[in-house]
Each structure stands twice: as structure tokens, then as C-alpha cells.
Hints:
β3 and β4 form a beta hairpin. It is rod-shaped, with a radius of gyration of 30 Å. About 55% of the residues lie in helices and about 20% in strands. It has 3 helices and 5 strands; from the N terminus they run αβββββαα. The chain is an alpha+beta fold and about 130 residues long. It has helices at about 1-40, 95-115, 125-130, and strands spanning about 45-50, 55-60, 65-70, 75-80, 85.
Amino acid sequence: xxxxxxxxxxxVMIAFMWWSSRSRKKQMEKMEQDKREQLAAVTxxxxxxxxxxxxxxxxxxxxxxxxxxxxxxxEMYWEREMIAEIGGQPPLASxxxxxxxxxxxxxxxxxxxxxxxxxxxxxxxxxxxxxxx
Length: 133
């Protein structure tokens, strides 16, 4: 009797593993199909985010290769699986904000860098000769 119980549990466990694997495969196929349909419906010029955080404008889809355009006009080729999000807006600051803050921040940063790196004090030729020895 003990052997029949053990065999029954083994059959139930194998059946559960098979059913779980089958349902997971179906779910993965459905997700894959949804992603393909979503990419097929994308219009050129729409923003796309990759899984590594790159934002680009959609240009073309060639099989499993997605062509994205950078903000400076270069085209990059990505595998379809790397696309994480379609649509939305990238986290770019507006040009008005950049123009207003560029002047003040650049001056502050360059002053700090010079002080930190010691670029404001020009080394004398005597100091550089002593360092070389």
C-alpha cells in the first residue's frame, strides 16, 4: 500500500509540473504576441524606451530589429526584445530651462573645478623642475 501512495504522489507531482510548464509557455507566447502587435502599431516619431534606459524616436521595424533615432539624428539598431516602453515622454528638460540655467551652473562648476584641481595657481618652472628630479 505504501508503494501505491508513493507512486500516486509522484504522478500528481509530475502532472502538476507539466501543467505549470505548459501554462507558463502559453503566457510567454501571449506576451510575445502582444509585444509584436504593439511594435507593429507604432508610428514613426513616437518615443520608445529600451530596457537599459535609452530613449529614442521610433524610425522603422525590420523583423526583430527596431531602428531608433537619437536626439542628435543618429540611428541605432536594437533587438525587439530590448524595447520596454512605447509612448510616453523621455525625461528631458525643456530648452527654455536649459538656456536659463546653463549660464549660472556652468560658471559655478568651472570655478569649483579650477579650485579643486588647483588650476587657478599656475606652477612655477622651479616647482616643476624639482618634481621631475
